[in-house]
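Continuing the series of single-chain predictions for the mutant panel. This is the parent chain; the variants come on the following pages.
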Amino acid sequence: MQLTPEQQIAYDKAVIQRQNIFITGSGGVGKSVIIKKIFETLKKQVNIALTSLTGISSNLIGGQTIHSYLGLGLGVSSYEKLLNKITNSKTLFYRWKKLQVLIIDEISMMNIELFEKICKLANKIRNSNAPMGGIQLILSGDFLQLKPVKSDKFCFESLYWSECIPISNIIYLKTIMRQNDVEFIKLLNQIRINEINDNIKHILQDR
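Parent structure:
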């Protein structure tokens, strides 16, 4: 598969440099494509998990929900209850301890409360003060598409986010792979950033 320049940057940072990254961009730019390629490469080398926020999105990438993989249930239990549950399960405790790379797709749907609980759990269970307990994070999603579940605060507003994801490791994919109609692509991008003018309204209403 031929990668776009931005996808190649994401691949190199994740696979070769083994850095935490956040891959973002509008719909159709190949976010899921590149995280699946990264997964296929790294799974031969490390203990890696491919997850997403919903059952449908996790099925689309061939993974499982972050809630199921990390034993979070609905994710609404307190940090203390989740810690007790994980440490009292040999399977979950071993999974957290041995995990080296965690891929999370549709990260925009994860609210700040759940993100911070996961980071704190990783630090405690793995006995490490490193960001995310030393687990390499590969995040993907678009904060302009899907909002957090049951919260008004995005996970990137957390101090844990800035510790995990340096600004230089936010990779913005720009090449649209899903459509080739230039005017349609422009229309979608303007809607995405809430710049809806009379011309856009006319095009949509004309259909």
